[in-house]
Every structure is written in C-alpha cells, then in structure tokens.
Amino acid sequence: VVPAAGGDAGVVFLLDAGGEELQLAAQVGFGAPLVSAWRRMPLASRTPIAHATRDEQPVLIAGFHDWSARFDPMAVRAALGAGYEGFAAIPLVVDGRALGAAGISFR
Predict the structure, then answer these.
(1) Which of 95, 93, 91, 61 is nearest to 75 (CA)?
(2) Which pTM does this prediction carry?
(3) In this structure, what DSSP letter does residue 84 have?
(4) In 3-state terms, the chain is what percent helix, strand and coil (to 5)?
(5) Among 4, 12, 22, 24, which lies 20 to 30 A Cα-Cα from 93?
C-alpha cells in the first residue's frame, strides 16, 4: 500500500484493550530510532494518528506549516528530522468503531 500511494514509509497503530493508548502494530520503511520512540502514544496526544483515530476522519499534512500549526512539537521534530514532510493518517473503522489508524509518510 505504501509504494502504491507514493509513500516512503508507513505504520499501523491499534487501540489497546482499554481504548486509551495506541500501539504500533506494523511499520515499513522507518528507521529503528523512530520506531522505538513511537511504539506507543496516548489516544489524547496531538499526533496525526491519534487525531484520525479520535475523530474517525483522515488527517492530511502537506508540509511543515501543517505540521507545526496542528501537532505536538515532538511529533513535528520526529517527522521532519527523519526527512518526511507529508503525512496521511487514515482511521481504521469497523462497525462504526475506530480501531486505530494507518499512516503513510512522504518525503
């Protein structure tokens, strides 16, 4: 899916059993430091994946201004520091319930 969408890396995060935390379920294309830093994130966090999951709506980021205006500075530094500018977070919704989100990063 990542190459077909023109992306350079991708992730899938799923909600934990308590519904309060997103856990990394799969990834492709990200380096080990980035993966280890983002294995888990609170559902309440200001990240594209968390927003897509909470709102059950896609989050599309076109570049630096979208990142910096909308999201946690740590997420901005991680994405831009790894060379990614664009990002798409797509909620994973089954039977009207968000289970998590998939994300694709673009250079």
Answers:
(1) 61
(2) 0.85
(3) -
(4) 30, 35, 35
(5) 4
